[in-house]
Amino acid sequence: MKITKEEVLYVANLARLNVDDGDVEKLAAEIGDILSYVDTLEKVDTDGVEPTTHAIDLTNAFREDVVHPHPGASATLANAPDKEDEMFVVPKVVG
């Protein structure tokens, strides 16, 4: 499919993209190649093929969400470099 320079500039304007004048012709050719490939894919017979969201079957790889007891403040702060009244002491980060 042939894409004109004007169409490239129009789409770039809609997408709020700054396109150099020297790149417009190259982009037109590349977009035309992509659309030609899509036209080729439209010729494939897909009758009887179920739509899918992935090319391969995927399963959830997450672990089970298991509740564990909290170790408590003293155990949590045991390795803290600096603590005060069961709280972490950290450097001041705001001016």
UniProtKB/TrEMBL annotation:
Record-listed E.C. numbers: 6.3.5.-
Keywords: ATP-binding, Ligase, Nucleotide-binding, Protein biosynthesis, Transferase
Domain of life: Bacteria
Source organism phylogeny: Bacteria, Pseudomonadati, Thermodesulfobacteriota, Desulfobacteria, Desulfobacterales
Family annotation (HAMAP family): GatC
Membership in a protein family: Belongs to the GatC family.
Gene3D superfamilies: Glu-tRNAGln amidotransferase C subunit, N-terminal domain
Keyword hit for Ligase: yes
Pfam families, per database record: GatC
GO BP term, pick one: regulation of translational fidelity
Signal found in the keyword field: no
The protein's assembly and partners: Heterotrimer of A, B and C subunits.
Catalysed reactions listed for this entry: L-aspartyl-tRNA(Asn) + L-glutamine + ATP + H2O = L-asparaginyl-tRNA(Asn) + L-glutamate + ADP + phosphate + 2 H(+); L-glutamyl-tRNA(Gln) + L-glutamine + ATP + H2O = L-glutaminyl-tRNA(Gln) + L-glutamate + ADP + phosphate + H(+)
Name of the molecule in the record: Aspartyl/glutamyl-tRNA(Asn/Gln) amidotransferase subunit C
Example of a GO MF term: transferase activity
Function: Allows the formation of correctly charged Asn-tRNA(Asn) or Gln-tRNA(Gln) through the transamidation of misacylated Asp-tRNA(Asn) or Glu-tRNA(Gln) in organisms which lack either or both of asparaginyl-tRNA or glutaminyl-tRNA synthetases. The reaction takes place in the presence of glutamine and ATP through an activated phospho-Asp-tRNA(Asn) or phospho-Glu-tRNA(Gln).
